[in-house]
Design brief:
Blueprint (H helix, E strand, L loop, with lengths): L11 H24 L1 H7 L4 H29 L3 H18 L5 H15 L2 H16 L3 H26 L4 H15 L15 H8 L2 H30 L4 H25 L5 H21 L6 H6 L5 H15 L5 H31 L1 H26 L3
Helix pairs in contact: 1-6, 1-7, 1-8, 3-5, 3-15, 4-5, 4-8, 7-11, 9-15, 10-12, 10-15, 10-16, 11-14, 12-14, 12-16, 15-16
Length: about 400
C-alpha cells in the first residue's frame, strides 16, 4: 500500500504548520486534564485517595486502550480518522460528567473518557514521527508546539478558573475537545510500511535481556514523574496556591522544556542517549527531593524550571533510544510496551498506591518515595551503560 503523501516536498511547510497547530490544540486539553481536573474533583469533595483512584483509571485503561487503538489504526491504515472518533467520544464523556455527582458514576464516565483520551498522545507521536519523513521536520520541532499549547493554556485557563471557579473546568474541556475535532480536519494521514503490531513482536522483545532491563528502568523514572504529575496541583492547593498560580506553575514547566526540545531536535543526535537519560534521572531525584521539602508555593517555581532537564530530556531521548534499540519490524510492539510502562504501570502505581500514601502521610513522604524511585532508576541506567555501552 502506498503512503498517503505522494509528493513529500510540495506542501511540506503547510503540512508542518497544520501538525504544529493541531499539537498546540490537543495539548490544551491535556493542560486542563493534568492541571485542573484534580482540583475540580477536589472542590467536589473528593479526598486525595479518591482522586488518586480517578487518576489511576487512565493509566489502567491505557494498557488496553492503546493496544486496541493501535490495532485499529494498523488495520485501517489511519491515525487521523481514529483520533477524530476518540475526540468525539471524549466530548460525549465530558458532557455526561456535567450531569453527575455520584463517585461511582464519575468513575464509570472517567473510564470512558480515559479510554478515548490516553491513546491520543501516542497516536499523535506516531503521526509526527511518520510525518518527518515527508515534511523534513524532526519530531521535536513539531512536539515543541504541543508544549507551547500546554504552557499557554495552563496559565490562561488558571486565570479564567480563578475568576469563575473550577466548576467551569468541564466547559473549558468541551471547548478544547471541540477545537481538536476541528483540527483533525486539517491534518493528513501518514503511515509506514513496517509490520503491524502483533503479540509475537512482544514475545520477541521480552526475550532480549537488554530490552527488558531498559523497560524496567524506565518504570522507575516514569513512576517518579507520574507521582509528581498526578498530585502537583493538589499539593499546590494544600500549601495555599491559587488556581492561577497552579496554571503559572504548569506554564513554567511546559515553557522550560521548549528550548530543550529545540536543542534536542537540532543537536540531540550528537550525544549518546543513555548518559542523557542518567543525567535526567539524577535531576528527577533532586526535583522530587525539593518538592518533598517545600511548604511555600513560590518555591515550586524552581522545581518547575527543572522540568526542561527532567521530562524534556528523559522522554524524547528514551523514545529515540528505543527506536535505535529495536529493529523496524518490532517498532510498533516496542511503542506499545513503552506506552504500557509510561502510562499504564507507572501511572497506576502512582495513582493507587501514591494516592493512599498521600492521603495518609502527606506530600513530604510521598515525594521522598518518588525521589527513591528516581535514584534507583539513575543507578540502574548507570550500570546499564557500563554493561551495554559498546553493544
Amino acid at each position: 500500500m502506498q503512503d498517503s503523501v505522494s509528493h513529500p516536498s510540495h506542501n511540506a511547510k503547510r503540512e508542518t504548520l497544520a501538525l504544529r497547530s493541531y499539537s498546540f490544540i490537543t495539548y490544551s486539553t491535556q493542560a486542563l486534564v493534568v492541571s485542573f481536573l484534580p482540583l475540580f474533583f477536589l472542590d467536589k469533595g473528593y479526598n486525595a485517595s479518591q482522586i488518586g483512584f480517578l487518576y489511576s483509571i487512565g493509566p489502567m485503561i491505557a494498557i488496553f486502550a492503546n493496544m486496541f487503538t493501535g490495532f485499529i489504526s494498523d488495520k485501517n491504515q489511519t491515525i487521523v480518522k481514529l483520533v477524530r472518533i476518540l475526540f468525539i467520544f471524549q466530548f460525549i464523556a465530558i458532557g455526561l460528567l456535567h450531569q453527575v455527582d455520584s463517585f461511582s458514576i464519575t468513575c464509570f464516565i472517567m473510564t470512558l473518557f480515559y479510554f478515548c483520551q490516553t491513546p491520543i498522545n501516542p497516536l499523535n507521536d506516531s503521526l509526527i514521527l511518520l510525518s518527518s519523513k515527508y515534511t523534513g521536520t524532526p519530531y521535536a520541532l513539531v512536539r515543541i508546539f504541543g508544549s507551547l499549547g500546554f504552557a499557554l493554556s495552563a496559565y490562561s485557563f488558571g486565570l479564567i478558573l480563578k475568576a469563575v471557579g473550577t466548576g467551569h473546568t468541564l466547559n473549558l474541556l468541551l471547548i478544547t475537545i471541540a477545537a481538536s475535532i476541528i483540527g483533525t480536519l486539517f491534518i493528513k494521514d501518514y503511515y509506514g510500511s513496517s509490520k503491524k503490531f502483533d503479540f509475537s513482536g512482544l514475545v520477541t522483545i521480552i526475550k532480549q535481556p537488554k530490552v527488558v532491563y531498559f523497560f524496567i528502568l524506565l518504570f522507575f523514572i516514569s513512576t517518579a514523574h507520574r507521582m509528581y504529575e498526578g498530585f502537583l496541583a493538589i499539593t499546590l492547593r494544600q500549601i495555599g496556591a491559587s488556581d492561577s498560580f497552579v496554571g503559572l506553575a504548569w506554564l513554567i514547566s511546559a515553557m522550560s522544556e521548549i528550548p530543550v526540545l529545540f536543542l534536542l531536535g537540532k543537536y540531540g543526535h550528537k550525544f549518546k542517549e543513555i548518559p542523557l537519560i542518567i543525567f535526567a534521572s539524577i535531576m528527577y531525584a533532586l526535583r522530587m527531593f525539593l518538592l518533598s521539602s517545600i511548604t511555600e508555593p513560590q518555591w515550586v517555581v524552581v522545581t518547575q524550571l527543572m522540568h526542561s532537564i527532567t521530562f524534556g530530556i528523559y522522554f524524547t531521548t528514551a523514545l529515540r533510544y528505543m527506536s535505535r534499540l529495536l529493529p523496524d519490524q518490532y517498532r510498533a510492539s516496542g511503542q506499545a510496551i513503552f506506552t504500557i510502562v509510561w502510562m499504564g504501570i507507572a501511572g497506576s502505581m502512582s495513582g493507587l498506591v501514591g494516592g493512599q500514601i498521600y492521603a495518609s502521610f502527606g506530600h513530604q513522604l510521598f515525594y521522598q518515595i518518588a525521589t527513591a524511585f528516581a535514584i534507583v532508576g539513575a543507578i540502574g541506567f548507570f550500570l546499564y551503560n557500563i554493561k551495554y555501552a559498546e553493544s
